[in-house]
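Still learning folds. Look over my entry:

…
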Amino acid sequence: MNEALPDVPEVRVVGLPQLTSGFDLVDRLDLQMHLKVHGPLEPLGGEQLAQLAERINLRGRGGAGFPFHKKLRSVAESAIKRGVRPVVVVNGSEDEPACRKDTVLINRAPHLILDGALLCAEAMGARTLVVGVTRESTQRSMEQALAERGLSNGRRSALRARVQRNPVRMVTGAAASLIRSIDGGPAIPPGRKTSASKSGVGGAPTLLSNAETFAQLAIAARIGPERYGNTGLYDEPGTVMLTVSGAVARPMVVEVPTGVPLRYVLQLAGAPPLPQGVLTGGYHGKWIDAATVNEAIVSRNSLDAVGGSLGAGAILPISQDTCPLGESLMVAKWLAQESANQCGPCYLGLPAAARGLEDILNGGGAAALEAVRQVAKNVKRRGACSHPDGSAMFLESTLKAFTEDIALHALGNGCGRPVAGVLPLFEGGAAPTGVPGGEDEENGPSRQKIFVDWTLCRGHGLCADILPEVFQLGADGFPTVAQAQVPRYAEAKALRAVRRCPALALRIEDSAPQAKAPSRNLPVLSQGRGRRALGR
């Protein structure tokens, strides 16, 4: 039950392959085979590359779907303005248990990804390329690919390229987490939202996108926008890599042209003819029902229109003979475990939401249902990364999609169906100490607890303003927690909250012996005055 997918599951293709070309010949395309299959690739000028990305409407394939040409121009403009060289980062983390498309590409076609990344580096004059991964197989394949190109030691090229290995955690794949780890810190969000295009690795403008995005760019650069547009939909041309799992006979990664009916993809993987629901976009995605599946096609706009989400390309049907709320509860608990434990909406809100969903299953009534809705609403747009937002979207979608089951559980005796555990999961929680990007003395477990004295609290609300990572105000204007761990990065703010509380209702106690944080030498980014960027 809830078994994780292998790194490289079965790979299929609908129509003519593009990203998966050559997969029928070898298990992994080394540089020589890559060139035989795809041919050589000529460099493009910066503005040419941006126009190409714009003409094919290339959007990030990691989930957010941000237009790639806008990101490319933003990084280049920032680099020109500041007179520094930008950095290119490939995000191949893919730490969601239901996603394997990027992992498949890195393991089987790493040079296609490097083609796209090197095109961007050459166009913008970047001298640093980093590929972020979390699995041993992806690290091994990408390091081998860099060695095959003579980029592994930086001596045969002006470009310095390396692989950054981080722990397998949901928050590791966030852009801010990856950048922080590259700079020598832990692979968790830094507690503040910044634009990588303006200040990323080492403070330099950074072009960061996921592995499939760079691979798609490499395909388009070879065949041109007209030929690329001959596949798929007019407004979303090309192919899409999907990971199909859940209640299917054959979990797989499949490359399909946009516009293919979703039901055809499900049939290809051996899904039930009439699924009870299909989770689209993965565990930060949305459920759609069986009737909607017949209307949906594989495209970002189509899935959005029917209430679904393309997201990171994960498609997970469940059958009629399993409890959908029970399946969703297991995911909700896993999402709560994946918190970085530094923002209140995440490490307090997500466990509360999971407990609320469990209360619904156990007959908690309308009060339990309303509590889950309120928690999901409260955590949105309040975290240091998108994890609480995506988790809240999943919870709200669950409540919307399975109203009949909610009524049976919350107001009756349950739906009478078992939980089959068909949605793939793996054990989550904090990264182990000593793992690159794991918990350390500066950013690890909290050393302090903060307490509210209810006999003194008057609901001024300053604590929530100063320390939103810990305190949220309820409907009555008072804090919703009486005590909480203080994230290490927020200890100074916690002390300020204690000192500024007008009612002197807060106190801090040490929860563990303090130890001196070890010193760390951060990598220094070369800031040459080269201005080779878009429009050169």
